[in-house]
Design brief:
Blueprint lengths: L2 E7 L3 H11 L7 E8 L2 E8 L2 H9 L12 E8 L14 E2 L5 E6 L5 H10 L11 H10 L5 H9 L6 E7 L5 E7 L4 E4 L3 E5 L11 E4 L4 E6 L2 E6 L4 E2 L4 E2 L15 H7 L1 H9 L3 E2 L2 E2 L5 H4 L4 E6 L1 H18 L2 E6 H4 L10 E7 L5 H12 L3 E6 L5 H5 L2 E4 L12 H20 L5 H22 L2 H10 L5 E6 L2 H17 L2 E6 L16 E6 L5 H12 L4 E7 H6 L6 E5 L7 H19 L18
Parallel strand pairs: 18-19, 18-20, 20-21, 21-22, 23-24, 23-25, 25-26, 26-27
Antiparallel strand pairs: 1-4, 1-10, 2-3, 2-4, 5-6, 6-7, 7-8, 8-12, 9-10, 9-11, 11-15, 12-13, 13-14, 16-17
This protein binds 2-deoxy-2-amino glucitol-6-phosphate.
Length: about 600
């Protein structure tokens, strides 16, 4: 969704800001804008459409020639419309009527109509339909001509809703103020220059020394210094964190799309996630004992693909730990009254660590006394900071909107967790535990082997690229993989697809199967193989074309008689989803490629969903 960046330093602020918002393009946006402070005034450019349009206008404007050797400040934004349609005027930054204050904003100001009304009474005129414009107007109206920081503090205390802000004032060309409430904002410390962004991707190529603003905090930048305050004006002491991502960068490194680069990075992401946590052939996850002690129920709560990780893990979680495990969508969980108490462990899974519904579910769980564990990819994100305990997936920076390597790393954490808890509660023998750990360590190699099927999957996508409807069917853990496969396909192809529990087809959905309907059937679970095979025969009898993703061992003894077969190595059932997902990701990718879709930034989607 929307993206914020800010720059303060003696370098070329304009160049930094434009490059930085480009790195946030993947989050989804419909307009962009930039403001810098210079010659005692705010210089502004905002454009509907792609950043390239903004770039062109900036390039021909004299306003954006940056002076060398002086402190340059600037802010920029990518907007994903909420209040008011995508347009030049609704794009950020929003500048106050006097021209003194410029603001970029992520989030939603819930009391903006009320504030607008009272500002209008004081003859303030508004140009846009946005909620953000009240912020610049309010700061300006509270500014006494001397104390910029106080005007910002007084303003944020009047705002209701969620807001991450970066603010300029033309009276202070060497100053930027950043504010955070319920929407992420990160500071990056560079070499005699500092950065602000709603997502580290914006500046990770410049610095890995970061500091996340916590709830209701203000960062006040002056020259190369930065001070932190709370909303009451109390100065805060904040620590710098070094993000140690070994893999992933904000460039495509020769790949046509980030998504393909990230698909190929999966073996490494799994290895980085697992290897440091296996010591002497034992899974070692610090400080977890206390959290899992006396737990009698587990909730796994998440959105989208992260939810599918929970759905896939549930089967082994329950079977191997003997603990009731419920998987729920965060958007549903937060508004129900789930039966949770201090004996419940709530596991929140999130790549970004900022998903609004997942964060709300975490807060609700804590309020009800449950123990909380977050599985998160982005270091120091809101969910990671607020949970009782966090296990990071070391997948590195993930740029493509459609998640791949973070999904695989999340699955890897779940396997470790299942083994860890089942051994803690005495449900697994030492021998079996050791066997599993061995398999876990070889998982990256199996995933690598699956990736070698790239060409085969490309050929399949080419053959079926004109299909306009796909069904994914499977049972048990394969049904969970179907849901992820179908989501990936939908996100990328913009076509209808459906994931169905194979045994449920007959209860209504089979009426949709007709001559030539494409059905992707998943049969990796040996025990359920014959059952799903019967369902394949049922759809074939009605004319379906079938691609089977099937257990390799079973394939040696059974002739499937389907249109295409993708064999899946016979790893322990718990780990099958990690292999099954590879052909599903590749199929969705190639299908979209052959149909000329916007692979890294599919329409209407955002990487980090920070509104509900
Ligand atoms: C997956 O490809 C999606 N982009 C989406 O479903 C995503 O998994 C979901 O929005 C949850 O995000 P999170 O993991 O960052 O919380």
């Amino acid at each position: 969704m929307c993206g914020i960046v800010g720059y303060i330093g003696k370098g070329n602020s304009v160049e930094f800001l434009l490059n930085a918002i480009e790195k946030l393009e993947y989050r989804g946006y419909d307009s962009s804008g930039i403001a810098i402070c210079g010659d005692d005034k705010i210089k502004l450019m905002k454009k509907k459409g792609r950043i390239s349009v903004l770039r062109k206008s900036v390039a021909v404007s004299k306003d954006f020639d940056v002076k060398k050797g002086v402190v340059n400040t600037g802010i920029a934004h990518t907007r994903w419309a909420t209040h008011g349609k995508p347009s030049d005027v609704n794009a950020h930054p929003h500048v106050s009527q006097s021209g003194k204050i410029a603001v970029v904003h992520n989030g939603i100001i819930e009391n903006y109509l009320e504030l607008k009304k009272s500002l209008r009474r004081r003859k303030v005129k508004f140009l846009s339909q946005t909620d953000t414009e009240v912020i610049s107007a309010l700061i300006d109206s509270l500014y006494d001509g001397k104390d910029f920081l106080k005007a910002v503090r007084d303003t944020v205390n009047l705002l209701e809703g969620s807001f991450a802000l970066a603010i300029l004032c033309s009276d202070f060309p060497d100053t930027i103020i950043a504010v955070k409430k319920d929407s992420p904002l990160i500071i990056g410390f560079g070499d005699e220059e500092n950065y602000i962004a709603s997502d580290v991707a914006a500046f990770v190529d410049k610095t890995k020394d970061i500091c996340r603003l916590e709830e209701c905090e203000i960062a006040y930048f002056k020259g190369d210094k930065v001070k932190f305050y709370d909303f009451n004006g109390k100065e805060l002491d904040k620590k710098v964190t070094h993000i140690d991502w070994k893999i992933g960068s904000s460039t495509k490194e020769g790949f046509e799309h980030f998504m393909m680069k990230e698909i190929m990075e999966q073996p490494e992401a799994i290895k980085e996630t697992i290897a440091p946590r296996i010591v002497d052939n034992k899974i070692s996850i610090k400080n977890l004992d206390e959290l899992v002690e006396s737990v009698n129920k587990i909730y796994i709560v998440a959105c989208g693909s992260s939810y599918h990780v929970g759905a896939a893990a549930k089967y082994s979680f329950e079977k191997m730990t003997g603990i009731t495990t419920i998987v729920d969508l965060a958007s549903e969980f937060r508004y129900r009254i789930p039966a949770i108490d201090e004996k419940t462990l709530v596991i929140i899974i999130s790549q970004s660590g900022e998903t609004a519904d997942s964060l709300a579910a975490l807060r609700e769980s804590k309020r009800r006394g449950a123990k909380t564990l977050a599985i998160v990819n982005v270091v120091g994100s809101s969910i990671a900071s607020e949970a009782d305990h966090v296990i990071y997936t070391w997948a590195g920076l993930e740029i493509a909107v459609a998640t791949t390597k973070a999904y695989s790393a999340q699955l890897a954490v779940m396997y470790m967790l299942i083994l860890y808890i089942s051994s803690r509660v005495g449900k697994i023998s030492d021998d079996i535990y050791r066997e599993y750990v061995k398999h876990l360590l070889s998982l990256p190699d199996f995933v690598q082997k699956m990736l070698e099927m790239k060409e085969k999957i490309y050929d399949m996508a080419k053959k079926y690229k004109d299909k306009d409807n796909v069904f994914f069917i499977g049972r048990g853990v394969d049904y969970a993989s179907c849901r992820e496969g179908s989501l990936k396909f939908k996100e990328l192809s913009y076509l209808h697809s459906e994931a169905y529990a194979a045994g449920e087809l007959k209860h209504g959905t089979i009426s949709l199967i007709e001559q030539g309907t494409l059905v992707i059937a998943i049969l990796t679970d040996k025990k359920l193989f014959e059952k799903t095979l019967s369902n394949i025969r049922e759809v074939q009898a009605r004319g379906a074309t079938v691609i089977a993703i099937a257990n390799e061992e079973k394939l040696n003894s059974v002739d499937l008689e389907v249109d295409e077969v993708v064999p899946i190595p016979n790893v322990p059932k718990m780990m099958l989803p990690s292999l099954t997902v590879i052909p599903l990701q590749l199929f969705a990718y190639y299908f979209a490629l052959l149909n000329d879709r916007d692979i890294d930034k599919p329409r209407n989607l955002a990487k980090s969903v920070t509104v509900e």
